Here is the input.
Amino acid sequence: MKTKPKKKFFTNHSKSSAAVVSIALHLILLLIAGTFVAVQVVVKSEKKFEAKQVSRPRMPPKKLQVPVKIKKQRRKPRLRQRIVVKTKVRNMPDIKMPEISGIKSGLGAVGDAGLGSADSIGFSMPEINIFGVRSKGEKVFIALDTDAQIMRDEVGGKRAYKVIKDELTKIIEGLGPTTLFNLAVFDRRKAVALFPKMVPASRGNVEKVRKWLEPLNAPKVGTTGTHGTKTLGKGGVTLKRSGVMTARNTIEGSGLGQWYTPAAEAMVEQADTVFILTGWWGYLYKVTGEAAEWKYRDRYNEYLKKSKEAQAKENKRRAAKGEPEQIFGDNHQLMIHYFPDKFAAYRPPVPPHYNYTGKDYAKAFPIVREDSAPDLPDKSGLTKKKRDKFSVNVIFFAPEKFSGTHAKFKELASRSGGDFRVIKGLKAIESSVSR
Here is the structure.
């Protein structure tokens, strides 16, 4: 007899067994998953460093050295200058030019300023500075006094005069090569110009200035009477007093001496600016009558002799100390220094005369200038007639205790479009030179 096979549990309960297996697998997976770490936080402890002292070799300290940059002195830039020649044509008809846009006031504004003028097209005239007196011009004339009056002890003597000469040479050397100039020296008897007419300020001409002025009134020990135009270097042209006279000139007689001769020569040469460096006005007058009889000639000569003896004794003392001589312009000045009261009592009688003023010379200069100008018309027809402009500047070297104003020179400069300055004594002269 056949027996029926016994059915197993999972066979009989297939659905229940599947659930049991599923649960068992999930439990196994959960156990396995529990062994894994999703996030691990590691907290590190703060590190501590211990400083260890290391011994290093020490170098001896060096002294601090600050580099010093020496700046080279740069020469002042020279203004570019040019010589302007105004072309003048006779009988040129007036032409009216149309106004052009872009030029202020049109072309007429340029014409009114004068065609050919440096200022009219934006260029400024070269500026010259002599002992603090400034002026502008392309043609410069300098007149230097060489009389004893400018070398009085109260002014600074020959030492001060050397400073003046050296400064003039430096100023002329600084002029642009296209600037025209001339230099003249004068005393009460004579005036000498270095060149017959104005020349460019080239190196060669500046060197001639230096050689010409070098021996002029040079300080020499143990000498007397060595001053004036006779101490100039080689060269030069003597200016004739009659050369500055014209048919319309109002200056005559003794008024042609001193500084007026070279100043009038500057007008002949059509200088733009004139500088007069002097120590006194001078004997500038016109005799109008005869002098009275000189009754005290013998007494005057007696004290004049004593004055010369006193001067010789003084110069001997100075020579022993190595000092320059004491000088005077004439016998009158010598006697006034040693015996002023005797000079006032016994002086020669002065004839009736008229003393010229600054106004007189200011009127004479334009006349000399106009009468000496080239025979050309004043304008081309494109421009209006323009007044001939020039300036006369005066530098007056006075004694240290000078208290006057010197109205004549001041009036001359003012009426001639220039400037006037008084420089008192050696210290003031030295402080006025360019550095």
